[in-house]
Amino acid sequence: MHNLILVVDDDALLRRSLAFHLEQAGYRTSTAANAEDALALARRQHPDLVLLDIGLPGMDGLDALHQFKNLGDIPIIYLTARRRELDQVVGLELGADDYITKPFDVDVLLARLKAVLRRAGSSNEFQPDLEPLVVGDLEVNPAAHTVTLKGQTVDLSPREFDLLHVLALHAGAVISTEELMAQVWGAEFIGQPQVIYVHIRWLREKLEDNPDHPSRIVTVRGIGYKLIPVDC
User: Fold this and answer.
1) CB count, 10 Å around CB of 76?
2) Residue 94 and residue 225: Cα distance in Å, rounded?
3) Is pLDDT at 70 greater than 70 in this prediction?
4) Chain-centre distance of CA 106, in angstroms?
5) Is the pLDDT at 125 greater than 50, yes or no?
6) Looking at the predicted structure, is the pLDDT value of residue 89 above 60?
7) Are residues 34 and 73 in the same domain?
8) Angle at which helices 12-24 and 106-120 pack, to 10 degrees?
9) Which of 49-63, 113-127, 167-181 has the lowest mean pLDDT?
10) Of 154, 163, 184, 206, which has the fewest beta carbons less than 10 angstroms from its beta carbon?
11) How far, in whole angstroms, is CA 122 from its chain's centroid?
């Protein structure tokens, strides 16, 4: 399977450009506009490498590095502006694998990325939390990528599974539409809530006794959705 690269930058144009060039080069990509969303994605997706901007809103890249390293030995390349030379040095001392300054040539970035992945080899020991999640009579098994309802297997698309997985990780709590977009589809889809609406509808058709009056995946008007345990 092709390596998964997580791109974390608050510059939307740069994110899209990097994702495009990485996918053209044969990589899979996931994107986030801030460190908090990136960490949530990493806990589920097991990226092979993170391209991490230092100057992020909220938690900056230096703080985020510690959080990523707590998840496991994930290779990290910092993306940084030339004026932040001190940050580059500090970042490498804290454990980043490499850095590249903006603006940069895509071919140079790809070469550096390949070198870091080659050095990392099989040392990336991070494993996401793969324990089955039981929510009433519903079980989500991320290791097997399966869902059972009342003991019966439910056939879900990969995106439906990811959406249900995030809801199950926070069962009983309301997850905003924006948060679901960031964690399941990535930063590039934020502002397109219709994608959520459609997939929630598809999940309800497969999981609810009455999709028009859901008791399992509940809408919290004006905020988002929550998954509620339903017992047999």
Assistant:
1) 25
2) 38
3) yes
4) 23
5) no
6) no
7) yes
8) 70
9) 113-127
10) 206
11) 21
User: Helix (H) and strand (E) counts for the chain?
Assistant: 8, 12
For residue 52, the enclosing domain spans 4-120
**Two tokens at 147?**
């869902």
Same domain, 76 and 108: yes
d(CA 75, CA 125): 10
The verdict on 54 and 158 lying in the same domain is: no
Geometric angle at alpha carbon 133, from 191 and 29, rounded to 5° = 40
Dist. CA 81–CA 124, nearest whole Å: 27
% residues pLDDT > 90 (the chain): 31
The long-range contacts involving 131-134, CB below 8 angstroms and separated by at least 24 positions, are: 133/165, 133/168, 133/169, 133/171
- Enumerate the β-bridge partners of residue 219: 225
- Inside any domain, residue 174: yes
- Rounded-to-integer distance, Cα 15 and Cα 12, Å: 5
Q: CB neighbours of 14 closer than 8 A, spacing ≥ 6?
A: 102
Each residue of 163-207: pLDDT tens digit?
A: 999 899 889 999 988 888 878 877 666 667 788 899 999 999 999
Position 87 scores a pLDDT of 54
